[in-house]
Design a protein that fits this description.
heterodimer, A: 114 residues, mainly beta, 4-stranded antiparallel β-sheet, 50% strand, B: 114 residues, 5-stranded antiparallel β-sheet, 11 strands, 55% strand
Chain lengths: 114, 114
């Protein structure tokens, strides 16, 4: 039984470019949440997808968008990249809407913006 | 939205001693409090969680206590071992329908001295 997987592992982009990160949830889970973790900080909630819709959103600009597919996998898109977007992007999967169920994290995608 | 404060930022204890990490939260409606362990370069791993209808929960050497009145919860690790060295994050979540996903503390770097 595969846990949460993410791709790619690492990514280097330049300012102004766009990036797409991917996440496959743990088997049996239907909800995907995305977090941004800056170096030395705790993860910060970006948004959550359930039933192919964005259900919750943290304090992130519209440059951050996402999508969930019928197989529950999800994408995070970031447009017009800024240097400050450099971080580890984590996805977490869970069962059911909301954030008060157990969330299991993927290994993350390390994004570097030059 | 929810705000979680975590202390201390660094904790050094002798192997075999106990370690205690404390967190406070701001929104009395929060009802789910997980703790994650993150080793260097790895994903956060859920180690224990507690819900607001319970005051204490134990799992072998790890325990979590919750004081809803004071909006305070703590992680207790007894008989610490070298493999306990990591960064530990507390988090809080509102019930389904609430905003903000999981709100994390800034983390505690636990160092186990041999």
């Amino acid at each position: 039984d595969a846990g949460v997987t993410q791709s790619p592992t690492h990514l280097i982009k330049t300012r102004g470019q766009q990036v797409t990160l991917r996440c496959s949830p743990k088997s049996g889970h239907d909800t995907v949440s995305w977090y941004q973790q800056a170096l030395g900080q705790g993860p910060q909630f970006i948004f959550q997808y359930y039933e192919e819709e964005e259900r919750q959103r943290g304090n992130f600009p519209d440059r951050f968008s996402g999508h969930q597919f019928p197989n529950y996998s999800s994408e995070l898109n970031v447009n017009a990249l800024l240097l400050g977007d450099s971080a580890l992007y984590l996805c977490a999967s869970s069962f059911g809407s909301g954030s008060s169920g157990e969330q299991f994290f993927g290994p993350g995608t390390r994004l570097t913006v030059l | 939205g929810e705000n979680v404060e975590q202390h201390p930022s660094t904790l050094s204890v002798q192997e075999g001693d106990s370690a205690v990490i404390k967190c406070t939260y701001s929104d009395s409606a929060s009802n789910y409090f997980p703790w994650y362990k993150q080793e260097l370069g790895k994903r956060p791993q859920l180690i224990i969680d507690i819900r607001s209808n319970v005051g204490e929960k134990k799992d072998q050497r790890i325990a979590v206590t919750l004081n809803k009145t004071a909006k305070h919860f703590s992680l207790h690790i007894t008989e610490t071992q070298p493999e306990d060295s990591a960064v530990y994050f507390c988090a809080a979540s509102l019930p389904p329908g609430g905003a903000d996903g999981l709100t994390f503390g800034k983390g505690t770097h636990l160092i186990i001295q041999p």
